[in-house]
Amino acid sequence: MTGRELAFQVLRRVEEGGAFASRALDAALAQAGALDPREAGLATELVYGTLRRALSLDAALARHASRPLAEVDPAARVALRLGAYQLLHLGTPPHAAVSEAVSLARSAEHGRAAGFVNAVLRALARDPRPAPAPALAEDPAGHVALAEALPRWLAEEWVAWLGPEEALLLARAMNQPAPLTLRAQDRAALATRLAAARLDVRPALHAPEGLVVTGASVSAVARAAAGAPFQVQDEAAQLVSLLAAGELRGRDARVLDACAAPGGKTFHLAELLGPGGEVVALEVHPRKAEELRKEAERRGLGGRVRVVCADASKPVPGLAAGSFDAVLVDAPCTGTGTLRRHPELKLRRAAGDPARMAGPQRALLAACAGYARAGAPVTYSVCALSRAEGPEIAAWAAGQGLRRAPPPPGFPSAVLDAAGDLLTLPHRHGCDGFYGVRFTAG
Ligand SMILES: C[S@@+](CC[C@H](N)C(=O)[O-])C[C@H]1O[C@@H](n2cnc3c(N)ncnc32)[C@H](O)[C@@H]1O
């Protein structure tokens, strides 16, 4: 199998089957077995690049298509985007880009669609220009949307929230590959092992347990680590656990992690606490809760992590009000802060989604704040960059009587916004986009 064929297969799973690109790509690469590393690299570039640029590729293709791309057979649409990405972004010779896209469409048994793919890509190859973007000063959201292939509604949201220049930098950074970031309790020891194996490793900029590895896969890191424990986790996610409970380091405290699976923050919190500490990890989905429990055992944290499968937005039997030293609500969200890792979200999320998520987010925060003892911190976080899921939730909670609390001592001020809340942005901080706000229980 070639890299192009593999990319086509993965992109079809994303487009037609609703798969996550990263998981579908990992699974396809594993299944392909001994694929030439160059072909595997090409497949990765094609999958991520095509999804990152899909909206502007569609705009460029639409100039040459006789019917709207939304009405085209999905396999043909994927073949068109793959061909257009190679023509406009990879400098692939036109003949190769067109003929390979056509044969991919044909392999999907869509003879008629292959003719359409051929005609549209040939026209694009004769005039290989992206659709022109309006000037930033005239139509800021239109410029950001078209120049960086962002949905118009999200470009409008970022422009209104952060201003045109910042929104453009953010959208641009979201089109760059995300680094491989690890968390290790003994960061220095892990860094030494990775460096000894000639991996390119450096400390994360803001998170004290974070390491950034360049040019290596997770399995290469695992081999080099030779048993030294680590977890793959973005730096911003590490900062959330520290915001929630940084001052409890080494203490035998109780922490509630209300939305816990797959468990990155649960395990971080458990490692932070002293040997007699406990993290109660709530997760509403039984399968995810079970996987979380098993992973806690595997990491040797079973004694410190108690997984409870329950809906955290409703009273949870057995959990007493005022019984935790810190509460974290890492709420389900639109995920728009993670577009570098999940570019398919550009195509899946819609304008009304942030407001739609805000209802359950408020319910979770309201229900869980009461589990904190008086004076203990209650932290709300999302890996989403929208006002509705971030600052507007904070304002609503303040209106409900929750008082904003300062971050724990030593927390890096570089990742705080003007209101003192956590706001990480990939172009400024190098990590995923997260928002977090900390309150004090009354
Ligand atoms: C953003 S993810 C949490 C990520 C996790 N904190 C981590 O660091 O790995 C949100 C999680 O909350 C779960 N969830 C959604 N609604 C919930 C609810 N009402 N009660 C408990 N868990 C919920 C989802 O299934 C999902 O696993």
TrEMBL record:
SAM-dependent MTase RsmB/NOP-type domain sequence ranges: 166-442
SUPFAM superfamilies per the UniProt record, alphabetical: NusB-like, S-adenosyl-L-methionine-dependent methyltransferases
BP GO terms, sorted: regulation of DNA-templated transcription; RNA methylation
Residues where S-adenosyl-L-methionine binds: C259, A260, A261, P262, G263, G264, K265, E283, D311, D330
Hydrolase in keyword set: no
Active-site residues per Swiss-Prot or TrEMBL entry: C383
Parts forming coiled coils: none
Pfam families in the record: Methyltr_RsmB-F, NusB, RsmF-B_ferredox
Any one GO molecular-function label of the UniProt entry: RNA binding
Domain of life: Bacteria
Keywords, sorted A to Z: Methyltransferase, RNA-binding, S-adenosyl-L-methionine, Transferase
Family under the similarity heading: Belongs to the class I-like SAM-binding methyltransferase superfamily. RsmB/NOP family.
UniProt protein name: Ribosomal RNA small subunit methyltransferase B
Organism of provenance: Anaeromyxobacter diazotrophicus
Record lineage: Bacteria, Pseudomonadati, Myxococcota, Myxococcia, Myxococcales
